[in-house]
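One-letter codes give the sequence; the integers encode the fold. A sample entry reads:
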Amino acid sequence: MGNVPAIPESSAVIADVAVENDYDGFAEAYTAENETSLLNAYYVRPAIVDLAGDVAGRRILDAGCGAGPVSVALRDRGAVVSGFDRSAKMVELARQRLGDDVDLRVADITGPLPYPDGAFDDAVAALVLHYLEDWTAPLAELRRVLKPGGRLIVVVNHPILLKMVHRETDYFATTKWSDEYDFNGQKAVLTYWHRPLHAMTDAFTAAGFRTAVISEPPPAPEAHELFPDEMARFPSGAFLSFMFFVLEAA
């Protein structure tokens, strides 16, 4: 559910203590802010839909579903979606959006998931794993609930991001860092764990996944017209904010 600027401002700081990512406290503001935001509405969601391809009839788990925008996009393309989130308020908002006929639950990705083995054809973990220091248990559970050959689409902070803000940072170290955001007028602090690219792919392999795709996509074409000032910062038409993976369950 996270959000991070394409190139964070200098207000970003290395975190010395844990800061709780309490989405219950700003769920409505976060949802309102990102309904039409550049990074969420015109970058992450269209990229996930593109990577997912033809999902008609496929059972898809939205892990860390937030208020449900990715679930809606996939359901609109014929998927049978289920979702969970640690934030009860986010699940409430998702239920308002998706209706009572969609299986939405309050659950924590760091613990056992309330689904049977092999229940899903695909899973999406968008802007979730970068909040966690240890990916071992979450990836193992996501692998468990996928059928053999199932896909996991992962979106996380690009590993170069922290280095762009703090050049003195050791890229190869797993590092906790925080930044403050303004979501629709409400301030919130989010804390992330940076890890280098090889640490990500090593974790995927150890969990029983094969990395099929690593993507650094551009935003949707209409972003240039809708956000001319922001896009003017990136002459190439693309930016490094998130990294996208398509993993296949071995």
User: Anything to note?
Assistant: The beta strands are 13-14, 59-63, 80-85, 103-106, 120-126, 146-157, 175-183, 186-194, 209-215, 242-249.
